[in-house]
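LOG
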Amino acid sequence: MIKACLFDLDGVIVDTAKYHYIAWKELASEMGFEFTLEHNERLKGVSRMASLDILLEIGGVTKSTEEKEELADRKNEHYRSFILQMKPDEILPGAKEFLTECKKNGIATALGSASKNAMTILERLELTKYFDAIIDGTNTTKAKPDPEVFLKGADALNVPPSTCVVFEDAEAGVEAAISAGMKCVGIGSPSILSKANMVVSGLNEIKLQDIIKLQ
């Protein structure tokens, strides 16, 4: 029996990709080179420090480890300045409705995100109350596809992993869910998320009764 739903944040609940791109673009501009949308494709699903290495490679810039830390912090400051202006109307279609449906039917909910800004984003979107547990980059050490974030979510909800369904938009996230022994609903392209039990374009295309069928 499904007892809990675990959600990734970016691409599932909200789309902050545009803010990441603008923040990286600003950082590149400060260093004297251009960062394009085409370049940005290389950063999808990549950690902040790995993304910075790609950015520096694109610009032909070499920095020390200490300088890289400072640049990563500066990028995050740019990003935070954007997300602090976010409003509830930026919630992706169907997300709030699906979370509400979970609550009404006694299904526990948790966020499972690598973002260290997850709490700030949820507060800006006024969604904090919809989650029984929030596991983010401030209390995890291993990146997806490692299952740590989802296993911690199940533990926080006090439910067995086998009773959880994960909602993910990235291939690494789907693999993390499978490694955790959980069912997974992919949000996005079936060709990229083929390992998921089910793939839909958004939470507006799915009902809780569809999840029960995954058992």
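LOG (cont.) second protein
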Amino acid sequence: MNPIDHNVAPEEIDKFSALAHRWWDENGEFRPLHQLNPHRLQWIRDHVDLHGKSVVDIGCGGGILSESMARAGARVTGIDLADASLQVARLHALDAQLEIDYRLVSAERYAEEAPAQFDVVTCMEMLEHVPDPASIVQASATLVRPGGWVFLSTLNRNAKSYLFAILGAEYIMKLLPKGTHDFAKFLQPSELAAMGRRYGLEVADIAGLEYQPLSQKFRITQDPSVNYLMALRRPAQ
């Protein structure tokens, strides 16, 4: 393996490849992503007008976020290392008559190929699935243009997130398959912010994503104690 492609967890690629055919089943394993996607899209749009913007979606999977950004007028490139997921994404975009450039490439390699080429970089629900999340943050900082935005989301690491995101979501409510998350890979907001600063990004905003069991819906909150979103900017030069 080329050193630039070091940041790969084969078991994670296999996990998502095995579920690739379920990406667009809104009642299947990816139901939580479909439920939260309108909220994360709106949060992005609250910070930047996506119309006409060039966007790269890191860890795009089957294209749930990529498609919603394309519908908002963005020129979207989706990258992932699970080829089966990308095949599903391409077929679904074709059926939806959306032009999205899906590529089988790592964030680190693509950052070498296309530095400072994007107005917006997104990486949602992926950092907790890679061995080296700082490497993804560095690639994001490289891909974004000066003055551009980087939007990240992941899970906080504390007792509450273990209770809600693992015990609650995977074992009690069965929202996610058991073993979806590894608590040791969760990142506290302070840790993620420090990674961003290390690579020249400034934190602009942090918000929480809260699941409400009674309504079975998500909402944006000011509490980042479990799921959270972080908006960062590369200073204009």
